[in-house]
Amino acid sequence: MINRKIETKIKEYLENEDKKILFIWGPRRSGKTTVLKKISEKYNTRIFNFDFIEDRDLFQPSREALEKIVNTTKIILIDEVQNSPESTQALKLLHDEYDVKIVATGSSELRQTTNDFDTLAGRFIEYYCLPLSFDEVIDYVNPNELDLPRYANTQLHKQLIYGSYPEVYLNEDSEDSKQDLLNNIINTYVLKDVVSIYNLKDLKLAKEILTKISLQLGSEVSLREIASSLQANVTTVSNYIEIFVKNYILISLPSFKTNARRAVSENKKYYFYDLGIRNALIKDFRELELRQDKGAVFENYIVSEIEKIKKFVDYNFSTYFYREYHGKEVDLVIEDYQKQYKVFEIKLQKDIDDVNRVFPLEHKLSVINTSNYFQKLKELLSVDL
Predict the structure, then answer these.
(1) Closest Cα partner for 163 from 179, 139, 141, 184?
(2) Which of 48, 141, 266, 376 has the fewest Cβ atoms nearer than 10 Å?
(3) What mean pLDDT do residues 146-157 have?
(4) If you count DSSP H runs as helices and E runs as strands, how many of each does the chain have, helices first?
């Protein structure tokens, strides 16, 4: 079983004096339930699964109902909390009135689905459980220092093709089995579940939008062009994409703006938290060397890993791409709260001589490639900008 980094955060929370509610957000099938089961076994306490009406109904905002819960356990574990936005009031009362710890997981943040979430202001902390990160994978494989470069490249290739959802990564059956798992995740969570949570009208349109973005990986995305090609309303397309971003399917990368007029782009780039989902949408699981999109696939991997680092360590930084009128661009700009900049060129190959130095502000420039990606991400994970 893979040890998840979020487990250290939960352990710290359960062992300290903090009584705030701990929310863990992330897509379904990313490992949240497995983490809760570990806690449940360690502390011999049950999990309230809000996929079940019976468990949801236990959390009523009344002393009689809540005391039945706190009389049986001081550690309250809730799975899929987004299925009961109305439980927000009960969670608030549990925090305010009783000496309990609450760990609640959700595949969609309650703040996105209920206005009552504001009543929990100051009463919660939140972390994220996303598809496996590069260091979780390497820790699981646990190679010795001499074998680390070889294992890092082997695991990278595996994640570029089939992604990092735990059950897909750990699946040792055929490639067809991995592909079936990914298609199941798309159809049950990425589409059906998200469409249901937000009462979206068109499942087919949702999948078509995601597929269009899949085919534009690494490129700027025009919402008008997508809407026109699908004969849809631009606002509708924008709303669907925003929901996919909020639910840890897509990562939005805006264009960096300065006062310099040469920075031109108003569009965004979109990347996937998990490349297996992206490759399943376009039905392409070929080896990387055979693919025309291999550079964009590696770029997506690095952007998604940096996003995971950002959410895990809670760094206060923003990410962008940068492009000028005459076409020169840099792949990734990281801006911290002190307006310090790190600029990354993301390249598949090691021997890159012509690195763009077009970013107009003072910055540190790095090139990330398949030979050094592991070390570069480790550096970003371990130190501030």
Answers:
(1) 179
(2) 266
(3) 82
(4) 17, 12
What would you report as the CA-atom Rg of the chain, rounded to the nearest whole angstrom?
A: 22
At position 248, the amino acid (one-letter code) is Y
CA angle 334, 313, 363 (to 5 degrees): 20
Report pLDDT for 32.
95
Q: What pLDDT score does 385 carry? A: 42
Collapse the DSSP code of 55 into the 3-class scheme (helix H, G, I; strand E, B; otherwise coil) and give the result.
helix
Exposed e or buried b per residue across 30-63, where buried means at least 16 C-beta atoms within 10 angstroms of its C-beta: bbbbbbbeebbeeeebebbbbeeeebbeebbeee
Rounded CA gap, 57 and 185, in Å? 28
Q: What is the pLDDT of residues 243-271, one digit of tens each?
A: 999 889 999 999 998 755 555 557 899 99
Question: 74 to each of 8, 45, 103, 159, 277, how far by Cα in Å?
Answer: 20, 9, 11, 39, 38
What integer is the mean pLDDT of 272-289?
95
Amino acid at 373: Y
Please enumerate, as own/partner, the contacts of 197-203 that have beta carbons within 8 Å and a separation of 24 or more. 197/82, 197/108, 197/113, 197/247, 198/113, 198/243, 200/240, 200/243
- Domain contains 1: no
Question: What residues contact residue 44 under an 8 Å CB cut-off, 6+ apart?
Answer: none
Closest CA to 302 of 185, 227, 381: 381
Question: Are both 90 and 174 inside the same structural domain?
Answer: no
Residue type present at position 211: T
d(CA 152, CA 147): 9
Q: State both tokens at 43.
A: 């502390």
Is the same domain home to 176 and 262?
yes
CATH number assigned to the domain comprising residue 104: 3.40.50.300
Q: What is the mean pLDDT of residues 311-338?
A: 84
**Domain around 47:** 6-128
Region 65-78: mean pLDDT is: 96
Asked whether residue 188 is domain-assigned, the answer is yes
Contact by Cβ (8 Å): 13, 103: yes
